[in-house]
Design goal:
This protein is α+β, with helices and mostly antiparallel strands and 145 residues long. The protein has helices spanning 12-26, 47-56, 59-66, 87-111, 134-139; strands spanning 6-9, 71-74, 81-86, 115-120, 125-130. Helix 1 (12-26) crosses helix 3 (59-66), helix 1 packs across helix 4 (87-111) and helix 3 (59-66) runs antiparallel to helix 4 (87-111).
Length: 145
């Protein structure tokens, strides 16, 4: 097995920001956008998208997640710090950003009253379902035989 190749990150803030935007912009896409069409900077998003991005996948959350995947090195004499990552760790980081975004989306929908949730001990996970509108159900007439 070959030794993993490490990539040096020149600007940690830009690296995290561009990955966060990439995950957001590619979420839910059904291969409509090509890789070179995906956004990597805030300039490529409109103000509504930026607001949604900040709501469902904040820069601070992404910084915390990224620390799990980055190798931090400190120069012995200069005391400068640099960060490195492998392609495999980068893919895992993207998956973690995506999982966090989905979790935040579901949480926002629950808080808005659009989804109900419960813990399923059998699967050891939460389940979600669309809340039924009580007023709408009152208006509907039940089917009869």
């Amino acid at each position: 097995m070959s030794k993993p190749q490490w990539f040096i990150i020149d600007d940690i803030e830009k690296f995290i920001e561009s990955t966060r935007i990439l995950v957001f912009d590619s979420f839910g896409e059904t291969n409509e956008k090509k890789l070179d069409e995906l956004a990597y900077t805030l300039d490529e998003l409109d103000s509504e998208e930026i607001g949604e991005l900040n709501l469902i996948l904040s820069q601070d959350e992404c910084k915390i997640i990224a620390t799990e995947y980055l190798l931090k090195q400190k120069h012995k004499t200069k005391k400068t710090i640099r960060y490195l990552i492998t392609d495999k760790k980068y893919m895992s980081m993207i998956e973690s950003f995506n999982s966090r975004m989905i979790s935040n989306l579901l949480n926002n929908l629950v808080n808005k009253g659009m989804l109900d949730t419960a813990y399923d001990a059998e699967t050891n996970d939460f389940i979600f379902w669309v809340k039924e509108d009580a007023e709408e159900n009152k208006k509907q007439k039940p089917e009869t035989d």
